[in-house]
Amino acid sequence: MLIKLTPFTRSRPLGESRRAVSDLFAASQRRWPGVALAAAVALLLSGCGGGKSEEADRKEGDHKKESRVTRGTNDEVILKLDQATRTAMDLKTEKLKAEELGKEVKGFGRVLDASGLAASAADLKTALAASAASQAELARLKTLAAQNNASQRALEAAESAAARDQAQLEAVRLRLTASWGNAIASRADLADFAQALAKLEQVLVLINLPAGESLPAPPTGARISALGDTNLVPAQLLGPAPAVDAQLQGPGFLALATSNSFRLVPGAAVTGFLTVSGEKTQGVALPADAVVRFNGLAWVYVATGEETFERRAVKLETPLNQGWFLKSGLRPGDQVVVNGAQQLLSEELKRDEAE
Question: Which of 18, 42, 96, 118 has a beta carbon 3.0–4.6 Å from 284's, enabling a disulfide?
Answer without folding.
Answer: 96
